[in-house]
Amino acid sequence: MDRERNVPKRTQYANTFYAGVILLAAVLIGIFEKDTSMFLWLRILCMSLMAVSLNLQFGFGGMTNLGGGLIFSLAGYALLVGCLRFGWPLPVSIFFAMAVMLGISTVLGYICLRNNMLTFTFCTMGMTVVSFTIISKISFLGQDTGLIMTVAPRWMSNMRVQYFVFLAVVAATLSAIYRFTKSPFMQIVIGARENDERLTYLGVNIRNVRLVVFVISGMFSSVAGILFAIMNSGAHLSSVDTIVSIQAILMCIIGGASTFLGPVFGAVIVTFIINYVSGVTPYFKAVLGIVTILSVYLIPNGIFGREGRIMRKLDSIIRGDR
Questions:
Q1: How far apart are CA 136 and CA 127, in angstroms?
Q2: What is the pLDDT of residue 87?
Q3: Could you tell me which of 141, 23, 2, 170 has the C-alpha nearest to residue 82?
Q4: Distance CA 168, CA 295 (A)
Q5: What is the structure's pLDDT at 3?
Q6: Domain residue spans of the chain
Q7: C-alpha to C-alpha distance for 195 and 255, rounded to whole angstroms
Q8: 18-59 confidence digits (pLDDT tens)
Q9: Contact between residue 63 and residue 209 where contact means Cβ atoms under 8 Å apart
């Protein structure tokens, strides 16, 4: 009985250990990695935060959102509108972008969650396609070229300094997301994923629950989008493409949507494939597709999924199980 009672505490220690190892590795990368590689690791930080944010819907809520990249990219556009079009300082523009994304996330969630989850999936994809077309035709948003402006302050002009600033923001945001996943509300979200009819009979408004998750996930993803725009010195139309949303889903699938940190590992793998394999062959998308297929068939729960062989072995070592 004592051993069973200690399992939740051991699981918490295991999660803390994983987070500590990842944070230590990230700090060491910032210290010892070459300056030429800093841009890649900045991108990985942004993609990791976006993937973990989207996984609140995909992994925890069972909501397959094919428009996750839309919120991510629109946050960057909102930031650049504040800085470039209105001439506001960066802090004011960040606040403006978050306020705008709160409204957009609420409206999109309200529209896309009107019916079942299949409708939600295709509605989010349709919203992304429509937004891509509209942005490409509006001169105020830069049309095909996007909005280009260096918004980072001078003291962040050094890529290594920018990396540590991004790391601090991403670590703090991931910590907030983790605490949110341990809240009683997320247990309702997981219950809606497993058996929404039963919760409906108990008087729970499933649509409102999913809407709240959609909005909160969108706000966390907006932080990643703002960082991405700062890193790229602009908001570009390519980030609104549906491929970005699909890549975010792949990060969750490959890394393991059943765990909190699984999408982080998936983001590292997918970003490395896109950046390095694309330099070797123009068929890097095929390579990414093959990796996804192998992951789904051979490791259905993801490489670092909770039920995967790797995580079971690591958990048993950390917990001291025999």
A1: 14
A2: 92
A3: 141
A4: 31
A5: 43
A6: 2-239
A7: 25
A8: 788 888 999 999 998 888 889 999 999 999 999 999 999 999
A9: no
* Token digits of residue 206: 């499933």
Query: 171-179: long-range contacts at Cβ-Cβ below 8 A with a sequence spacing of 24 or more?
Result: 171/23, 171/26, 173/49, 173/220, 173/223, 173/224, 174/19, 174/48, 174/49, 174/52, 176/220, 177/52, 177/53, 177/56, 177/220, 177/260, 178/15, 178/19, 178/260
Residues with pLDDT less than 50, the chain: 1-7, 322
Q: What is the pLDDT of residues 93-142, one digit of tens each?
A: 999 999 999 999 999 999 999 888 889 999 999 999 999 999 999 999 99
Report how far residue 151's alpha carbon sits from residue 158's, in angstroms, rounded to the nearest whole number: 13
